[in-house]
Design brief:
It is built from seven helices and six strands; from the N terminus they run E-H-E-H-E-H-E-H-E-H-E-H-H. With about 160 residues, it is α/β, with parallel strands linked by helices. Helix 3 runs parallel beside helix 4. About 30% of the residues are buried.
Length: about 160
């Protein structure tokens, strides 16, 4: 799925924090070959899948303080129903249970995926590169999160499948 310069990545953002919603609206249109389809305030159960169905984004960016099982289940369903969609998750906090849920999610679908701690994102160009890479099917893991995900699991089947 090689992207040419004329192709534009269609992006839909779900962001819990109001200040970041405004930031996405302001920075996405500037420069990158990314079309911002919308920025939503929440990803309540059922709304993510409905929005993906209606908007047909290439990449779904979800930023959340806490990851819940209902969000993971809905993302799994989206990746099953729309296997080519890329998913970017920005997390503020995570636990061992969240990491298990993320492993499970990563095994669904064929599209790219990026998992980051929100505080790791510090440059607009980094966000743009991540959106493009995920739209091309790449998998990107934030190093601190990856270290936690694979700690003590040298023969992790999840890693082999990636």
């Amino acid at each position: 799925m090689e992207q040419t310069k004329s192709e534009v990545v269609r992006l839909y953002v779900v962001e819990e924090q109001a200040i970041y919603r405004e930031v996405y609206r302001d920075i996405i249109p500037s420069g990158a070959p990314v079309e911002l389809l919308g920025v939503a305030a929440n990803g309540d159960n059922g709304t993510l899948k409905q929005s993906v169905s209606e908007l047909c984004p290439d990449v779904l960016l979800l930023s959340t303080k806490r990851l819940g099982i209902s969000v993971i289940e809905e993302l799994e369903q989206i990746r099953t129903d729309y296997p080519g969609i890329g998913v970017i998750l920005f997390l503020v906090f995570y636990s061992a249970q969240d990491v298990d849920l993320l492993r499970r999610l990563a095994l669904k679908g064929e599209g790219g995926m990026a998992l980051f701690l929100k505080q790791s994102l510090d440059e607009i160009e980094q966000l743009s590169r991540t959106i493009i890479a995920v739209s091309q099917g790449q998998v990107i893991l934030d190093p601190p999160l990856a270290a936690f995900m694979f700690a003590g699991k040298p023969e992790c089947s999840f890693l082999k499948q990636l």
